[in-house]
Amino acid sequence: MKLSTAVALRISNILREKNMSQYRLEKNIAMPHNTMKTLMSERNSGVNLKTVMQIIRGLDMTTAQFFDDPLFENPDLEID
To answer: The CATH number of the domain where 21 resides is what?
Structure first.
């Protein structure tokens, strides 16, 4: 699994847990829809740390809480 896929899945799971829409998150952090759409659709081969940090803050989480998930513990996670 690619890192970008893991990040998108984690965001989706957290949004579902918090009963929050992607649109609401975008508005809370003033992120353009196209930026979020690109991240969530995995059209980017890489993940921008600044963007992920913005999202983590918008989800009212710590970085440790966000990355504390089995998705990121997979030894086959593609980080290139």
So the answer is: 1.10.260.40
Integer Cα distance of 36 and 39 in angstroms: 5
Residue 33, in any domain of the structure? yes
pLDDT tens track of the chain, all 80 residues?
Answer: 888 899 999 999 999 999 999 999 999 999 999 889 888 886 667 788 999 999 999 999 999 999 999 999 989 998 86
On whether the pTM is more than 0.85, the answer is yes
Q: How far apart are CA 42 and CA 77, in angstroms?
A: 15
